[in-house]
Amino acid sequence: MSAPAPRRLTDYEPIIGKSRVEELRLLGDRLRGRRISCLYPERPGQGPARTMASLAPLLEDLGLAVRCHPLRPPAELEPAIAKLRSALQGVGEPMSRETFCVLFEDGWQPALDIDGELLFMHDPEALLAARAVAARAVQRIWRCSLDLSRAHPDAWHALKQLAQSCELVAYSSPAFVQPVSAHQVLIPPSIDPLRPEHADLEADVVGAILEELQVPLDRPLVAQVCPVEVLRDPLTALEVFRRVRRTTKSRLVLAFEGSEEAWRPAELAEIQDHARREPDVHLLLLPPGSERQKNALQRAATVILQTPVRHGFGLAVAEALWKGRPVVGFVSGGIPLQIAHRYTGWLAHSIEGAASAVIHCLRNAEESKRLGAQGREHVRENFLITRQLRDYLVAWLIVGLQDDVIRLDG
Predict the structure, then answer these.
(1) pLDDT of the residue at 402
(2) What beta strand segments (E) does 240-371 contain?
(3) Is domain 9-190+384-398 in CATH 3.40.50.2000, yes or no?
(4) How confident is the model at residue 186 (pLDDT cuts 50, 70, 90)?
(5) Checking DSSP bridges between strand 221-227 and strand 183-186, what pairing results, if any?
(6) What pairs with residue 393 in β-bridges?
(7) How much of the chain is in helix, strand and coil states, percent to nearest 5?
(8) 54: which residues sit within 8 A by CB, 6+ positions away?
(9) Which of 119, 202, 282, 359 has its CA 20 to 30 A from that of 306?
(10) Would the CATH topology of 9-190+384-398 be identical to that of 196-382?
(11) Smallest Cα–Cα separation from 334: which of 185, 199, 177, 165?
(12) What is the pLDDT of residues 242-279, one digit of tens each?
């Protein structure tokens, strides 16, 4: 079977409208022929790798020359990079002197064939890898998806020196920012509506998938569907549901995507034990790549629950909103950017508040339908891949400009 043809902007026109496509082409015309090199960690199906898989063909459709450089650190460096990412997010112990030496003194300088005019780097791994090309005459942008608000000072101080060599730094949320001397912009992450996990599914297909997953549809479903890595406390959803079940008949589906290695063993054993003792709770450990299963679960749910995220943006909220489902989310990470309280869903500050909001959604079908429809439009306007494409084009336009005005009419 031949590979599918690369997507073009016209494929998104039925979703975003002709005027938005024309706007993107107008921006692209100002950058036509520019050579852009993109560095990002090679984690297939996750984060920057997933984003670039969608963006690269669209950039080429606009006439830009894009070269992608997925980065795979040597095995001996992976533990040190994991410690750096944790420290930057305020997790775990401060980095040891040995880890600093491995990352910032001994260094990692992979052979990179960078011939672009603009170097676009995703996350700490790319900053570390790009030191070898730092002296070349390229303009540099660093896109940081991590929440740096609670970064360990020593870890951030070391990385800050590299970040300040960039012309521009892009963060996902105002709450994630650490000050640097470079210009700073806000570019939230996005979803690609044409990926399988976001494609429309017929009701009979949804029913068949849930039957395979052994999830009955005899009661309204409350669902949490997200990657294992973002969970701060998987038991929070259970505590919310126990309060919901006292007054409203329903089922809870906890669907976590990721390998078993992504779990802390004690944490996995605890939630499995709790789920076994709860007859109306269905715990699903989905392997990586379970796109249709996630899609079907979100579409079958009456309300989506998003508990506090351990780190990062919590883009599972936008994924659920795109399915037209109301979302009850805790005020954490990037969730407040995605939920407009009582317009696209409910923001909660406590387990009791979340339970009250879930009960309200279950008992008020018409209001839930309205919230879901408004949530889908909110995502269409703010969290689709075409909006992120526009933000990147604008960022690349402003880098190095001497004037305060960008004219798009020639």
Answers:
(1) 47
(2) 251-257, 281-286, 303-306, 327-330, 345-348
(3) yes
(4) very high
(5) unpaired
(6) none
(7) 45, 15, 35
(8) 7, 192, 194, 195, 385
(9) 202
(10) yes
(11) 177
(12) 999 999 999 999 998 887 776 777 778 888 898 888 88
Of 241, 244, 239, 240, which Cα lies nearest the Cα of 270? 239
Amino acid at 290: S
For residues 121 and 143, the answer to whether their CB atoms sit within 8 Å is yes
For helices 351-363 and 235-245, give the axis angle rounded to 10 degrees.
50
Q: Which two tokens stand for residue 80?
A: 């040190």
For residue 175, how far is the Cα from the chain centroid? 15
The two tokens of residue 221 are: 């479903």
CA quadruple 168, 170, 171, 172: dihedral, nearest 10: 170
Domain boundaries, given as residue ranges, for the chain: 9-190+384-398, 196-382
Name the residue with tokens 């450990």: 285
Give ∠ CA 264-269-274 in degrees, rounded to 5.
130
Q: Which two tokens stand for residue 102?
A: 């491995």
Burial 128-153 (b: 16+ CB within 10 A, else e): bbbeebeeeebbbbbbbbbbbeebbe
pLDDT at 409: 54
* Residue 392, C-beta contacts closer than 8 angstroms, at least 6 positions apart: 55, 120, 187
Nearest to residue 304, comparing CAs of 326, 324, 335? Answer: 326
For 126-161, the pLDDT digits (tens) are 888 887 665 555 788 999 999 999 999 999 998 998
**CA 72/CA 384 separation, integer angstroms:** 28
Residue 230 has a CB neighbour count (10 Å cut-off) of 21
Which CATH superfamily hosts domain 196-382? Glycogen Phosphorylase B; (3.40.50.2000)
**How crowded is residue 347: how many other Cβ atoms within 10 Å of its Cβ?**
20
CA–CA gap between residue 157 and residue 151 (Å, rounded): 9
How far, in Å, CA of 286 to CA of 183, rounded?
A: 40
| DSSP 8-state secondary structure symbol assigned to residue 308 | P
d(CA 380, CA 261): 34
